[in-house]
Amino acid sequence: MFLKSFGGVVVAMTLLVGNTAIAQTTDTQLAFHIQVGSDNDGNPIILDAGSVQGSEYTILQKQGNGVTKTTFRASCAEGRLFSETAANYSADGQLISEKPTKQEITPQPGTPEANSMEIVCQSASKEGNQ
């Protein structure tokens, strides 16, 4: 499990630094990373589509030389979004810090939070209709 998480962080680092990779394979599983926005410096903010579990998912963002990984939980039917945890990783993928955030976010249209929530909720509704 650690290696799978570490691999995701390394791919995210590649995406955030080079902005060229769009997918990776791990143990015959394909993990997609979708750009859902960018920060003030133009660095991409990435939805780790492989992290989606129902309505829980992570987005990745460059932070200094490392990456911040924030886990969210969406209440799609109610249009509500909750931040669950935030973790910081160094440039070589080592976990520096992790803390629970446990707060409601009001996603504004066009923001990475709103864009990622829309993708996850559309995916969840399609899975529910199959």
Query: What's the helical proportion of residues?
Result: 25-40%
N- to C-terminal distance: 29 Å
Bulk shape? globular
Mean pLDDT: 81
* Sheet with most strands: 7 strands, antiparallel
Radius of gyration: 14 Å
Write the layout of secondary structure elements.
Elements: H1 2-18, E1 23-26, E2 29-38, E3 44-53, E4 56-63, E5 66-75, E6 80-89, E7 95-105, H2 112-129
Antiparallel strand pairs: 1-2, 2-3, 3-4, 4-5, 5-6, 6-7
What does this molecule look like?
This protein has 130 residues and is of the alpha+beta class. Helices cover 27% and strands 48% of the residues. The chain has a 7-stranded antiparallel beta sheet with strand order 1-2-3-4-5-6-7. Strand 3 (44-53) and strand 4 (56-63) form a beta hairpin. The longest helix is centred in the last third of the chain and has 18 residues, at 112-129. The protein starts with a helix and ends with a helix. The model is unreliable at 1-7 and 9-29 (pLDDT under 50).
